[in-house]
Amino acid sequence: MDRADASFDGGGRAPPESPSVGRGSALLLLAQVSSNLGFFVAVLIVARALEPSGRGTVAFVTVAAAILARIALSGVDNATIVLAAQRPDDRPALLANLYGFTVIAASSVGLVVGAAVWVSGREPAGVGHGELAVLVGGCVAVAATDAGLAFLLGIGRPGDWTKVAALAPWIYAATLGGLALSGALTVFLAVLAWALAHLCWAVVVWILCVRGSGLGSPRIDLLLEALRLGVRVWVGSLSRFLNFRLDQIILGLLTTDAALGIYAIAVNLSEITLYVPGAVAAASIAAIARASDSVRVVQTLRTFRVLVVVTAAGGVAAVAGAPLIPLLFGAAYDHSVVPYLWLLPGAVGYAASGVFSSALLSSSHPARSSIGPLVALVSGIVLDLVLIPSFGASGAAVAATAAFAAGGLASIVAYRKTEPFALRELIPRRADLLAIRSTVRTALTRITARRGAPPMS
Fold first, then answer.
1. How many CA atoms lie within 13 A of 455 on its CB side?
2. How far apart are the first and last CA of the chain?
3. What is the C-alpha to C-alpha distance for residues 386 and 250, in angstroms, rounded to an integer?
4. Cα 171–176–179 angle (5° rounding)?
């Protein structure tokens, strides 16, 4: 998507047609792969430079900041995706509302939690006063980044996000690499670099948002509407986020910093299998919201079937990477292998929950869209409390996979209650495999054509 395609003069002229689920998912997947590859290098540097206990502290601060950011947004970011997709004329005001709400809400939540921890005098997972200050600032930076992404999805500009995500994490990794080579990398500097990277990321994303729609004046009526819709879907979006983050907090509180560091590596690597379902679920919200009633169910089921095949194949391939963990991160992380393997099957349940929850949200059923993620969250917390004390990181991994499976099943049931369909429609078929092959061949043809190579036959 070039700059001419991304223009919008704010004068009522409709923007170009937004990407389909396939194109939007591909762009988001490209962004996510590039982004997470950069973060993977950063994780590798931190793991090599710090002991598992230090890696555990870094994981605790970054995960806690991300959770607080999700709480502060209160679902307004997800509501904005739907409203921006359906109301092009209101986009400048929606952007102004989202910006003001994000800064105020994230700052308030971060300061309240930071002050509470400071007054209590407790330092969970080795978090000192410096790391606590970074946690507060990181909450604002992450919330601003996520809110900006939501708006870009709503106006159909996933390509803009791709441009930023392809570079920003690598700047963070390069900063850590420089500190590590100089021997100056500490836990505090690691989390500070993470927070500053997200702050820079947020600034660039918001510049792209303003260029994409223009910035209008805040409108209280639109904000109240977004809050009403957002709160109804917030339980689901927060639950979905907590499903693969809260277990690290619980593990850090119930066990040692070293155990959290070992588990954090397993989580970071297993999340590779969540790239595709995460990208598809995010792109589906806006795309399905624009679709007519007659095609929504067909599109949702087809998306799920294709996604199950791709996700399962990715999980099988990821098993081969297990022996590489101690080679890449060092012998201290040999115990990350078993939790990593236990986490891989959870990707299929995550895919089901993502697709059908997104479909329910886009079909104006925000409360039902929260059922699957909420079931996963509750079951995950219960299983964490039962399994972590006895089995540590492996117990947390088993709990996460079981929770994703429960959430995926609940999402399917909730969608089927809303839009009845035959259960056989969930089973992948030959046409789905052909569609995957066609998509891959088309993508490879475009890549070779851009490089000047002869097109594939």
1. 6
2. 26
3. 11
4. 125
Rg (CA), the chain: 21
Helix H or strand E segment including 108: helix 91-120
Give the predicted TM-score (pTM) of the model. 0.65
Q: What is the pLDDT along the chain (457 residues), one digit of tens a residue?
A: 333 322 223 333 333 334 444 454 555 556 666 677 787 788 888 888 888 888 788 888 888 898 899 899 988 988 888 888 888 899 999 999 999 999 999 999 999 988 888 887 666 667 788 888 999 999 999 999 999 988 988 888 877 777 777 777 888 899 999 999 998 899 999 999 999 999 998 999 999 999 988 999 999 999 999 888 888 777 777 777 777 678 888 887 787 777 888 888 888 788 777 766 666 655 555 555 566 666 778 888 888 888 888 888 888 888 988 888 888 888 888 899 999 999 999 888 988 888 888 788 767 777 788 888 889 999 999 999 999 999 999 999 999 999 999 999 999 999 999 889 899 999 888 887 887 777 666 655 655 655 454 444 4
Separation CA 227–CA 214 (nearest Å): 22
CB atoms within 10 A of CB 104: 12
351 contacts 307 by C-beta, under 8 angstroms: yes
Question: Using CA atoms, how far apart are residues 387 and 120, in angstroms rounded to an integer?
Answer: 28
Closest listed residue to residue 97, CA positions, set 176, 38, 150, 18: 150
With tokens 């089995």, the residue in question is 391
> Maximum distance among all alpha carbons in the chain?
67
Reported as half-sphere exposure (CB side, CA atoms, 13 A), residue 147 has a value of 35
Contact between 50 and 185 under an 8 Å Cβ cutoff? The reply is yes
Q: What is the distance between the alpha carbons of residues 101 and 66, in angstroms, rounded to a whole number?
A: 17
Would you call 445 exposed, middle or buried from its count of C-beta atoms within 10 A (0-12, 13-18, 19+)?
A: middle
Q: Do residues 48 and 117 touch, judged by C-beta distance below 8 A? A: no
Name which of 112, 179, 194 is nearest 145 in CA terms: 194
Closest CA to 341 of 382, 394, 386: 394
Helix pair angle (293-319, 346-362), 10° resolution: 160
